[in-house]
Amino acid sequence: MSKFNTPTKARAAAVGPIKTKAKTAPTVEGGIGHLRDARSELFLLAVTNMVGESTFYETGKARDSRFVKLVRKLAIKDPEWVAGMLAWLRSPEANMRSAALVGAAEYVHARLEAGLHGDNRHVIASVLQRADEPGEMLAYWLATYGRPIPKPIKRGIGDAATLLYNERSLLKHDTDSHGIRFGDVLDLLHPIPKGTWQSDLFRYAIDRRHNRENAIPESLPMVTTNTIFKTYTPLYVDHLAKNGTLADKLAEAGMTWEQLGSYGPWTAARWEAMIPSMGYMALLRNLRNFDQAGVSNKVAAEIAAKLADPDEVARSRQLPMRFLSAYKAVPSLRWAWPLEQALDHSLTNIPKLSGRTLILVDTSTSMQDPFSKDGTLMRWDAAALFGIALAARCADADIVSYSSTRMYYGDPIGARTKVFDRPRGESVLKSVERWKTGGWFLGGGTDTAPAVQRHFAGHDRVVLLTDEQAGSVVDPGSVLPERTPLYTWNLAGYKVAHTEAGKFRHTVGGLTDAGFRLIPLLESSRNGTWPWRDGAQAA
């Protein structure tokens, strides 16, 4: 039996990008904790922060204020790092929209206030990826800082407007539900059009914002067709559906499913005409509606093929939890397999891990905290999803749900745990469903270190999925052998860490699987780097 050439002993020490300071601090629950450096605190907050949303331990206002202060501080001290993070935050990999927009606006304001110029325009443009976002950025700036609007803000938003504004995006996003319309952006910022057709589009957007009934330019045929379509009655729409021409009419008019929904109750015929023009996210959101309207199996098969297509999944920028949410919402089993495939495609960064892995999922009450106001998915849903998905990639894995009864019931043992047995071949979505129905969401307090201690049995690595706010006075890293890697997957972005970062003690975070790719990097003795700086190696 080898004594030295084992995965743990042969591994050289490597460090991850998330750092803690020497100074300790209590967690929100009063347990032992460690302060992070500013970069680490900002990164973990950015990848978990739904702007304006409160969490179990932190109000939305306090959370947003902490985010803004960190961005502004580092925009002066470390501008290149912040600019890289903000662009990555809005990329398909992270897909955090609101945090990226707020961060970019605050980055530029802080630098202009300090008299620092250069690259500000580029940072604004880099986070604006969808046609409604120039208006979002402008609305945030005006509400926060008012006028005058600085040139870098004007030019950065203008660059994005020129890139993103076209007939289809005008019809989809320039609606009365927005306070700042396309015409407002164009009126205030005067971006340079990239051709005659866009010059006509800009003029038309301004005219319709001011209710000027000027003729639609000939260079905008989709806008013209859309205007004509809106004169149709529901009876005539059903006539087009019956004779098989509605799908073409909808495509030519750039009609969205939201617009067609104003024509009265949905029928299978209307949906089947609309579906070819619908984007990936729209399909995902409406699976239940398709079933309720009685969409045919033939059309359902076409939808399923699109949902399960890896290229479509990549282009859709959907977070893995979106597929879990869709699975939980649909009544029909015909969507189960394509959603399972789609989820698997969205988790492509999860590596295959050799050896034995202990995965501990925090299901304390604070993890029963919704990501957003609709409350459809909780942090512990994400923790269970990522934990089970990681286990599916491991050669040998033990999955444990843990919390604590000590805080509420005076249990002297501390940790409350429940082992999850996952049959070979069981789908990730089925496992997550069984996790919920079988009672693995435990509730109560959080005792991480005792849970680690109870279930560690010579594993090659330990992965914790948690908000880190444990009540234990013991550092969970201290109960493991020094050279056994401990990976903390932070799902909330609170200020205080539950363990000291360093060699063999690493933290990753976010609502996607991207952090998992750090595990093989670190275990091959290379230092981890920030995700927008891939390729940096240990010295």
UniProtKB/TrEMBL annotation:
Keywords: Cytoplasm, Metal-binding, Ribonucleoprotein, RNA-binding. Belongs to the Ro 60 kDa family. InterPro entries: TROVE2 (IPR040322), TROVE_dom (IPR008858), TROVE_dom_sf (IPR037214), vWFA_dom_sf (IPR036465). It is found in: Cytoplasm. The keyword Metal-binding applies. Gene3D superfamilies: von Willebrand factor, type A domain. This is TROVE domain-containing protein. PROSITE patterns: TROVE (PS50988). Residues 25-355 form the TROVE domain.
